[in-house]
């Protein structure tokens, strides 16, 4: 035999408080059960029935509204019922049983079970201790577990009761506080449960038990010491992939009531970035009721938290006691800290794209500037070459002109070389000699004239020869004259000018080429 738990519908109330009605189902596979064993199986299921309460009320103080609780239905939806505080004269508007007793004290009360269906129903009625669910709801221990607190101290007169169709039954019960009971709050509940047989989609028959109950709040006289503790604080970040929109920071922690008074309270979460930069402040709703000795997990979500690397969540819980006399001590505030990485991946991707684009633009700009500089340098080189070519022509002309002037100075009339061979008048003791070459054709006229002239000239020739001999012997090489020195100086000046023009022309050509 195997069992599966299933949750049934919970009752509700039209008052401002959530009702204490609760329901839960226990399923058992009956596909292999024989008809003769069905009664035994039903009894076993009833003995181990489970119970789940409705969510805790923000303020469980009774409200004298007199409104009856809304009925709960069984798994098949054919039977509905409810449980509520009552008196011998009927319900008095209470939503829970609330007592203040001394250790060893006793109180008697009445609980009413209402049957809203068209057929009579038999309900199992019992009491159990209260607990908090992991999410903070109000619940009771499983029916198979043994109570040790208010569920044990409340004794209902009947374990089972038959309620007529559309009717109700008032059951008296007594709550007795042990003499050694600890001071503070003790919570429990009184339950009415009903079992039904349900056929699932796969034709597998299961037993479903639904429970509906009402709460018991008992405060035992003595010193009240409210306190709360935060533990297991954690933080996680979900940033998404949309840049500059922030992400969600989820903060979870476990809140434990370490005192002896029921507590609620407010909570605050401050999200900080590096160097304490404030990013977000979250004020969640009031905490649900936390029973003494119980704990539950709280989850707070902060949206729009910017991705700044390491973010820190600073949690502050300001607890407050429920239903305590004026002047009673209040629990101190508690804090917790948790951190999480909020790495700005989308922003880093955007930054990387921007850097790559800027780098590409820089490379393109540098290429343009380099090509422009090369074009400018080429244009300047062409300009220098053209300018050098323009300057070269007059320099060449000047050089050629200087060379021609130098040649004219050397070999022209009155030049240094021709001046040494120029004619000059004969000096003292010198004679001018004229040599006449005889004609090859003898004539009469030539014979007579030449003889006379030759004879006359012989004397002159002899004299010239003597003078010439004397000149060759005495003069030979004559010292340079002023004309010679002037010629040589002009030649040197022309050569100097020519060399300077040639050197400057060659340097200008080299610069233009560079």
Automatic annotation (TrEMBL):
Keywords: Membrane, Transmembrane, Transmembrane helix. The chain crosses the membrane at residues 341-361, 396-416, 485-503. Residues 79-89 have a biased composition (Polar residues). It comes from the Bacteria. The keyword Transport does not apply. Residues 446-474 have a biased composition (Acidic residues). Residues 56-68 have a biased composition (Low complexity). Residues 56-94, 419-483 are annotated as: Disordered. This is DUF916 domain-containing protein. It comes from Jiangella ureilytica. The lineage of its organism: Bacteria, Bacillati, Actinomycetota, Actinomycetes, Jiangellales.
């Amino acid at each position: 035999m195997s069992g599966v738990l299933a949750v049934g519908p919970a009752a509700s109330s039209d008052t401002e408080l959530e009702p204490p009605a609760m329901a839960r189902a226990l399923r058992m596979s009956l596909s292999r059960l024989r008809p003769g064993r069905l009664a035994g199986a039903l009894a076993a299921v009833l003995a181990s029935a489970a119970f789940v309460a409705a969510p805790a009320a923000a303020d469980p103080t009774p409200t004298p509204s007199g409104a009856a609780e809304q009925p709960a239905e069984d798994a098949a939806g054919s039977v509905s019922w409810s449980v509520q505080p009552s008196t011998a004269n009927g319900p008095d508007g209470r939503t829970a049983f609330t007592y203040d007793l001394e250790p060893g004290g006793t109180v008697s009360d009445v609980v009413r079970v209402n049957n809203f269906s068209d057929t009579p129903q038999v309900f199992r009625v019992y009491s159990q201790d209260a607990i908090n669910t992991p999410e903070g709801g109000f619940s009771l221990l499983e029916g198979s577990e043994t109570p040790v607190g208010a569920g044990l101290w409340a004794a209902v007169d009947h374990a089972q009761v038959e309620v007529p169709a559309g009717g109700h039954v008032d059951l008296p019960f007594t709550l007795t506080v042990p003499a050694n009971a600890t001071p503070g709050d003790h919570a429990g509940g009184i339950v009415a449960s009903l079992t039904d047989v349900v056929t699932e989609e796969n034709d597998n028959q299961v037993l479903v038990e639904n429970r509906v109950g009402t709460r018991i709040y008992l405060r035992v006289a003595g010193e009240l010491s409210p306190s709360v503790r935060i533990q297991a604080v954690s933080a996680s970040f979900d940033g998404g992939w949309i840049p500059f929109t922030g992400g969600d920071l989820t903060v979870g922690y476990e809140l434990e009531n370490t005192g002896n008074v029921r507590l609620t309270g407010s909570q605050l979460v401050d999200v900080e970035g590096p160097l304490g930069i404030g990013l977000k402040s979250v004020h969640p709703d009031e905490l649900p009721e936390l029973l003494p000795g119980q704990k539950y997990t709280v989850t707070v979500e902060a949206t729009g938290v910017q991705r700044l690397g390491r973010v820190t969540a600073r949690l502050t819980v300001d607890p407050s006691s429920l239903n305590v006399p004026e002047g009673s001590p209040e629990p101190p505030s508690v804090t917790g800290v948790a951190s999480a990485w909020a790495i700005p991946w989308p922003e880093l991707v955007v930054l990387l794209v921007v850097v790559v684009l800027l780098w590409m633009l820089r490379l393109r700009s540098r290429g343009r500037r380099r090509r422009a500089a090369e074009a400018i340098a080429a244009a300047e080189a062409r300009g220098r070459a053209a300018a050098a070519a323009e300057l070269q022509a007059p320099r060449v002309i000047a050089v050629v002109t200087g060379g021609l002037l130098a040649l004219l100075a050397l070999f022209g009339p009155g030049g240094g070389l021709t001046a040494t061979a120029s004619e000059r008048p004969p000096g003292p003791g010198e004679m001018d000699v004229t040599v006449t070459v005889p004609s090859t054709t003898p004539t009469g006229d030539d014979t007579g004239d030449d003889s006379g002239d030759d004879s006359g000239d012989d004397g002159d020739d002899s004299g010239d020869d003597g003078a010439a001999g004397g000149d060759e012997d005495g003069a030979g090489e004559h010292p340079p004259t002023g004309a010679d020195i002037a010629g040589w100086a002009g030649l040197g000046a022309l050569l100097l000018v020519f060399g300077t023009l040639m050197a400057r022309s060659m340097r200008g050509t080299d610069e233009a080429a560079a």
